[in-house]
Amino acid sequence: KLIKSNERITTIKQRVVDENYKQFIRIDEEDSTAITEYETANLIQIVEQYFNHSIAGIVIADYNKGIITSSLIVFLQLQSKDQKIPLFVDPKHQHFDLLSHCTIFKPNHKELVAFIGSVNLDKHAIHQTLKKHDLDNAEITVITLADKGMFYSEANNNTFDIIHGIPVDKADVSGAGDTVLAVLIYAYLSNLEVKEMIALANKSGAYVCSINGISTINLAKINGFERKSHN
Questions:
Q1: Distance (Å, rounded) from C-alpha 61 to C-alpha 147?
Q2: Residue 227: how many CB atoms within 10 A of its CB?
Q3: DSSP 3-state helix, strand, coil percentages of the chain (rounded to 5)?
Q4: DSSP state letter for 103
Q5: How far apart are the C-alpha atoms of 217 and 176, rounded to whole Å?
Q6: How far apart are CA 25 and CA 106, in angstroms?
Q7: Which residues contact 222 (CB under 8 A, 6 or more apart)?
Q8: Whole-model pTM over 0.70
Q9: How far apart are CA 66 and CA 27, in angstroms?
């Protein structure tokens, strides 16, 4: 569904890459101010209709383009809680702490740093930082650390760790974060154990980084890439 506005332009982003498809600059043309309360109310009214159907999960992928307002976030959080629907979040720095109240909270290291400042890439340091800044509210928190791997923590049993990254030559990161989130969601809804979820998402993100441009994935591709990366 679309909320149309004559006052805004459509976001356009251009990636400038070198001969190896490694991005060295991105040029965005956009209006990232928040949509109006009236537009937010219209959006909530549209989204509300979907709760009359069976919903496996709710996903908030926030790019800080102005669509994800605090009113919309609170509405979706209440629906998630009341109807027992898992809520999966990929945040940017705006609304960061509010968005952490969900099922899976998946910022990347850059977004975490933008919100709280520098963070030591040590599992104990990251864990303590999340607790200190009241960002450990999700059932599962996952922080992607680029080629360093992924930090994850489980609130229920207070466990946390870092899974090491898979080396990728001439990595193209386009779509990697979206891939990781999608795989985590699929794995969660398929009732995989948390360690299995993280391992699968880690492999998937690395695989996408190994392909120039945007790439789709499937289990055969991921398994083949895993074997190749171990050779």
A1: 22
A2: 9
A3: 40, 15, 40
A4: S
A5: 11
A6: 24
A7: 200, 203, 204, 207
A8: yes
A9: 18
Q: Give the whole-angstrom CA distance, residue 118 versus residue 95.
A: 19
Query: pLDDT confidence of 231, banded at 50, 70, 90?
Result: low
CB 172 within 8 A of CB 136: no
What letter represents residue 27's amino acid? Answer: I
| Cβ atoms within 10 Å of 7's Cβ, excluding its own | 9
110: closest CA among 87, 91, 97?
91
On the question of pLDDT at 156 being above 80, the answer is yes
Inform me whether the pLDDT recorded for 42 exceeds 80: yes
Q: How many residues does the chain have?
A: 231
Tokens of 28: 């965005």
Calpha distance 50→59 (Å, rounded): 13
Show the 3-state SS of 179-205: HHHHHHHHHHHCCCCHHHHHHHHHHHH
Report residue 164 as tokens.
Answer: 């090491």
Phi, psi of 19 (to 5 degrees): -65, -15
- What would the two tokens of residue 83 be? 């109807």
The band of 15, judged by pLDDT with boundaries at 50, 70 and 90, is confident
Q: What residues have CB less than 8 Å from 26, skipping those under 6 apart?
A: 13, 14, 15, 16
